[in-house]
Amino acid sequence: MAYPYLSDLLRAFTGLDLPLRVPMLGIMAAVAMITIAYLLRLELKRLHTCGILGLARRRTGPGGDTLVPPQDVADDLVILVAIVGIVGARVFSVLEDPADFLADPIGVLFSRTGFTYYGGFVFGMVAGTLFLRLKRLPVAVVLDAVAPAIAIGYGIGRLGCQIAGDGDWGIAANMALKPQWLPAWWWAQTYEHNLLGVQIAPPGVYPTPVYESLMALAAFAVLWSLRKHPFQSGWLFSLYLVLTGAARLAIEQIRVNAHMHIGGIALTQAELISSAVLVTGIVGVVRLSRRRAGPPPRANAAPVPPS
């Protein structure tokens, strides 16, 4: 069963029929953003307190700039990345299936579905990096701080996909392979009343958003437990790239996605990008695994002159 709107969820679990057509995808995206911002503020505050991260530059108006603790700009960073990420997610979705866009460009652009995570990730990374440079904060240090938060935020977002039934499900489930001890709904679902209005024949498809949420939760647990690592700045974010790249490569084997043909090999857009992400992460983990002699230099140790 799927619940595209808050009213659907309330009706199913409470019997109340209220006119609350608030998209569950939007609600879960908001929960993910709030969670990411909260965890990022905690980690930036810790890094600042222990001397690893200095002050952030904040524009106060025409008169100049001021310096603030780095956690004070966490919300601005999350909001910027979220907005730019939505644009990127839509752009990559169009690139993944240009025929649909050419057939109905307005419908595709303003559809409630059709967002590609890696598009949001790439666009968000670019926007976030520019933001951090503007704030005079070391990019690698902040990337380490945000890595656990991104992992859990992604898991929450995928729960939104599962609840709403937005089409991010898997291929037809092979019930012959299901372990006897596993409940049937963990292996196959029909997503009745899903957001797309698609009729899925029983026994159903693999509920891949559930699997991705569980992998994201596991990744968060690993990253959060290692956030005080002794290695070079950027090591933890590199580990995040390894975990997310490997998880996405695994889940793509049972997901429904359009394929591209490159050199005679059929690949999905996500497989191609996640392979690059995985390799980049492995290189980063290897190169940054040297223990640092001490905390990295604090940025903005002195006041920023007015500009």
Which properties best describe this structure?
mainly alpha; two-stranded antiparallel ribbon; globular
Verbal overview:
By secondary structure, the chain is mainly alpha-helical. The protein has a domain at 24-173 and 188-225. The protein contains 11 helices and 4 strands; from the N terminus they run ααββααααααααββα. The chain has helices at 6-14, 24-49, 74-96, 98-103, 105-109, 117-134, 139-164, 184-187, 208-225, 235-251, 269-287; strands spanning 56-61, 64-68, 259-262, 265-268. The strands form 2 sheets. It has a two-stranded antiparallel sheet. The chain has a two-stranded antiparallel ribbon with strand order 3-4. α7 (139-164) runs parallel beside α10. Mean pLDDT is 87; it is low at 301-307.
- Based on CA inertia axes, which overall geometry fits? globular
Q: What profile does the largest beta sheet have?
A: 2 strands, antiparallel
Helix residue percentage: 55-70%
* Spatial strand sequence of the major β-sheet: 1-2
Separate helix tally: 11
Structural class by sheet pairing and helices: mainly alpha
The radius of gyration is: 21 Å
Order of helices and strands: HHEEHHHHHHHHEEH
Mean pLDDT: 87
Task: Find the count of extended strands (DSSP E, 2+ residues).
Answer: 4
- The span between the termini is 57 Å
Strand content range = 5-15%
Low-confidence stretches: 301-307
Brief digest:
By secondary structure, this protein is mainly alpha-helical.
Task: List the SSEs and their pairings.
Blueprint: H1 6-14, H2 24-49, E1 56-61, E2 64-68, H3 74-96, H4 98-103, H5 105-109, H6 117-134, H7 139-164, H8 184-187, H9 208-225, H10 235-251, E3 259-262, E4 265-268, H11 269-287
Antiparallel strand pairs: 1-2, 3-4
Helix pairs in contact: 2-3, 2-7, 3-6, 7-9, 7-10, 9-10, 10-11
